[in-house]
Each structure stands twice: as C-alpha cells, then as structure tokens.
C-alpha cells in the first residue's frame, strides 16, 4: 500500500470518529438546551398555577381544557416529601388520533385541604422537529466538510509528495553501468532537498567505487593471467627437459599443478566479481533444456570412459532470461559437477518441464551440510583440480538472473533443480 493511501485512510478513519463524536455531542447539547427551555416554561406555569390556587383557593381547568395542558386530580397516597418530577409522555390527539410527545411536570398541591397531583404538560412536537432539522443540517454540512477536507488532503498530499515520487522514479531508472550521474530535480521542501543531496552523494560514491572495482577486475584479469601463463609455459619446458632428476621433476610437477590451480582460482574469483557487478549484459531468452542436452552429448567420450549412463526426459523446454556466456558457464559447471562426483557405472538424469529443470546424478553420500554446498571454497573433492568455486558461481548466476537453484539428496542421487523465482514464490504462497 502506498504511503499516501495509507495516510488518507488513517486520516479518514480518524476524521469519521471525531465527526461522529462531535455530532453526538452537538445533538445532546441542543437537546439539553431545548429541554431546559421547556422545563423553564413549565416552572413558570407552575408558578401561575400556584398563584391562581392561592388567590381563589380552587382550580378550574377551563383555561387549559382545549389544549389539555394541565391535569389536576385528588390523591390518597402521596410521598411524604412530595417534590417535582420532569418526565416525557405521549398523549393522543383527540381530533386526529395522532400520538404526540409532551414534556410533563408533576408535583403535589393541597386544594381545599385535599392533596392533589398536578400534571402540567407542554408539547414537544415543535422541539423534535427543530432537533431533526438541526441534526440533518449538521450531518449534511459535516459530511460535506469531511468529503471536502478528504479531497483537499489528497490533492495537497499528492502535490507535496510529487518530488519524492519523482526522485523514486529516477532512482529506479539509475544504472551504474551507464556512467551517467544521477540527476535529481530541486524541491522547495527542505527535507526532500536534503534527501536528494544525500542520494546524489551516495550515487556518485557508488559509481566511483563501481568504476574502481571494474578497473581492478579488468586489470587483475589481465595482469595476473600473463605471469601465470608464463610460469606454466616455463614449467612445461622444464618438465620436458632431459637433464633434471626425478626429484626435481616431482617438485616441478607440484609447482605446475599449483600454478594451474591458482590460474583457475583467479579466473573463478574474477568471474564472480563480474557477475556481482552485473558486467554481463544483453540478457536473452535461453533454452536451458537444449543447452544441457547438447552439453551431455559433447561429453559422450568422458561419459563412456567413466561408464556413466545418461537419461534425458524433456517434457517441455525450460527457458530463462540471462546472458549467453553465463548460461554456458551455468550448464558447464553443473554437468562437470555431475560427472566429477559420479561413480563407476553410474547414471545422470535430465528432466525438464516448463516450470523447472532437474539434473541428478548417482554418487557417494554428501559429507558437508547441504545448505553450505553453494558456499565459496566449499568442495567435496580433495583433488588438486578442484578450487571449490563451481557451485558458488552457479548460485551467483542464478541469484543475479531471477533463478532459484536447490539441492536434494534422495535414494543415493544428488539432485539440482532450477526454477524461476516468481514461480517458486507463487507455489510457496499457495501451499
């Protein structure tokens, strides 16, 4: 959910609560004031009643008969300390039968030595209508005020936050490989201006570090490969020499193997750095099922020598979006790993669907922990040819190109499964 939408929802909910409480309080205040006014008038009529009784020592209801506003009746049982009580009551209109609301004042008064209960009433029909009109008018105006405020808040927030979203859009389009500096527009808001300045400094520093790292990678790749190649060439010449002893041959062979391993290690680390720095561009849709099948065919001689059987089941082609050179390295490393760690009279199985590609091979029990198999320099083989970077390179290629790779060992088979990240997340959510 976007920040503006979240803010507007919170503001709308808070405003609704405040407006409802305000409307309820306003209604109660109006009702209290109107009732207070009605009760004051009833008190005045009570004084008029008492003055009339005191002057005439009797009471006649003729002045109130038509409106039926007062009722006097003798009572036998009455409170020891009679007081006055205000109540609401309903009285049916004698002409049209309509029930009408009244506010009633009840008190006790002796007339001719006999206690009488006196009930003075005042119609509330006009009061209720007034309350209804005030309530409806207030609700309409508060509703219009709420909608207007909400609309103005949305427009104002959208305008105020426009520089932020523009900055966000430019950051999304920023590319380290392009060499173009990050350009951000000036904002009148101080916080956004400070944010743009910090982001620009960070982007410039990232570009500078990226260029330095890229230059180091390229220089290291060139400068280190040359002396290593020279060492290997000279060592090969020494090995072929007839004047060296058997002991010297052994030590020269050891140096030769170490230099070759150093060259492969250097190539692997430089390749990892290039992948992490996204130096491989021009991604394209690659049919990995076809690449794996072709790679296994190219390795027929090696597979025949090790007596390894191959089973290929391509139900559907598995494609992925990645640069061609990285696709070749991914396939080569996984196939070489399946062959290297296989056994005599073993088997390699390739299964492919549109959602995943699975390469499995027979072999011995895994010594290390499965979750650490893709770490750098984590290797099962102990030979001098292994540098422990093959599966780490595979993992880095997958992570950089929206692919997921998992390992599983079942029934003496080691299985590597490739799938697409979005497909994997969808399956996880549905489980």
TrEMBL record:
SMART domains referenced in this protein's UniProt entry, alphabetically:
HATPase_c, HisKA
Q: Which Pfam families does this chain map to?
A: HATPase_c, HisKA
- SUPFAM superfamilies on file: ATPase domain of HSP90 chaperone/DNA topoisomerase II/histidine kinase, Homodimeric domain of signal transducing histidine kinase
Q: Which GO terms describe its molecular function?
A: phosphorelay sensor kinase activity
Identify the EC number(s). 2.7.13.3
Query: Kind of enzyme, top EC level?
Result: transferase
What are the record's GO terms for cellular component?
A: plasma membrane
Reaction(s) catalysed by this chain's protein: ATP + protein L-histidine = ADP + protein N-phospho-L-histidine
Q: Which residues are listed as membrane-spanning?
A: 12-34, 130-152
Would the keyword Nucleotide-binding be found if you checked this record's keyword annotation?
Answer: no
Q: Which residues form the Histidine kinase domain?
A: 219-424
Keywords in alphabetical order: Kinase, Membrane, Phosphoprotein, Transferase, Transmembrane, Transmembrane helix
Q: Which domain of life is it from?
A: Bacteria
Name the UniProt record assigns to this protein: histidine kinase
- Per the UniProt record, the source organism is Spirosoma terrae
């Amino acid at each position: 959910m976007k920040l503006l939408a979240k803010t507007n929802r919170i503001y709308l909910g808070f405003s609704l609560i405040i407006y409802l409480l305000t409307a309820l309080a306003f209604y109660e205040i109006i009702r209290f004031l109107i009732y207070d006014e009605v009760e004051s008038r009833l008190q005045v009529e009570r004084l008029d009643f008492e003055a009339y009784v005191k002057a005439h020592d009797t009471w006649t209801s003729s002045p109130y008969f038509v409106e039926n506003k007062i009722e006097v009746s003798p009572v036998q049982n009455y409170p020891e300390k009679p007081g006055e009580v205000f109540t609401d009551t309903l009285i049916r209109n004698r002409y049209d039968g309509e029930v009408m609301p009244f506010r009633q004042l009840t008190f006790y008064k002796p007339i001719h030595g006999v206690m009488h209960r006196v009930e003075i009433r005042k119609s509330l029909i006009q009061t209720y209508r007034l309350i209804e009109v005030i309530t409806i008018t207030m609700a309409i105006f508060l509703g219009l005020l709420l909608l207007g405020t909400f609309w103005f808040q949305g427009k104002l927030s959208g305008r105020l936050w426009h520089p932020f979203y523009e900055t966000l859009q430019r950051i999304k389009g920023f590319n380290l490989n392009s060499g173009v500096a990050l350009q951000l527009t000036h904002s009148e808001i101080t916080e956004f201006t400070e944010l743009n300045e910090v982001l620009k400094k960070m982007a410039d520093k990232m570009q500078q570090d990226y260029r330095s790292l890229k230059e180091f990678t390229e220089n290291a790749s060139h400068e280190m490969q040359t002396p290593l190649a020279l060492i290997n060439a000279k060592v090969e010449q020494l090995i072929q020499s007839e004047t060296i002893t058997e002991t010297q041959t052994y030590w020269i062979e050891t140096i030769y193997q170490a230099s070759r391993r150093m060259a492969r290690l250097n190539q692997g680390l430089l390749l990892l750095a290039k992948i992490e720095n996204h130096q491989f561009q021009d991604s394209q849709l690659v049919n990995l099922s076809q690449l794996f099948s072709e790679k296994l065919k190219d390795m027929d001689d090696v597979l025949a020598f090790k007596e390894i059987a191959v089973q290929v089941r391509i139900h559907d082609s598995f494609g992925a979006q990645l640069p061609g050179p990285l696709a070749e390295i991914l396939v080569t490393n996984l196939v070489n790993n399946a062959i290297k760690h296989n056994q005599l009279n073993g088997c390699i199985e390739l299964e492919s669907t549109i959602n995943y590609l699975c390469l499995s091979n027979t072999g011995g029990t895994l010594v290390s922990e499965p979750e650490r198999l893709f770490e750098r320099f984590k290797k099962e083989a102990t030979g001098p040819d292994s540098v422990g970077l093959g599966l780490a390179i595979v993992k880095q290629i997958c992570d950089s190109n929206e692919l997921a790779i998992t390992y599983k060992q079942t029934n003496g088979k080691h299985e590597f499964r490739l799938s697409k990240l979005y497909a994997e997340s969808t399956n996880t959510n549905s489980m």
